[in-house]
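Trying the structure run again after the queue cleared.
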Amino acid sequence: MEKARVSHPDNPCGVLDFLHWTHEWNNFHYPDAGTLQRSLTLMKEAGIGTVRIDFLWNDIEPRQGTFDYAKYDMLVDLLVKNDIEVLGLLDYSAEWASSCGAWNCLPKDNALFLAYVSGVVSRYKGK
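Done. Tokens:
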């Protein structure tokens, strides 16, 4: 028997999923677009309408002034294609900008954080 697929565009429920996790420290949890698509398909089948993901500063700006949006462009495009809304969190410090040299300390200069936030918001506004 084939499963019925039900779309819930007005579903107020969402999930937190670490779709951005493609790091050595988490065993490359989502290593490619196929793995991501499988998870998004399962979310849609479960009626999920929103996914919360972190837009990690250290991923996006690994060195001051050097921005790499490729991973997040792919994630946002896949979510939009699957009619899943994005609740994006702009968080954690880039190691180079951190007051202690680690991701979990405040930035040494809030202007650096503001530049990262402005770039991310400009790029993904409306998505």
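The first strand starts at residue 14 and ends at 16. Worth checking whether this holds up in the mutant runs.
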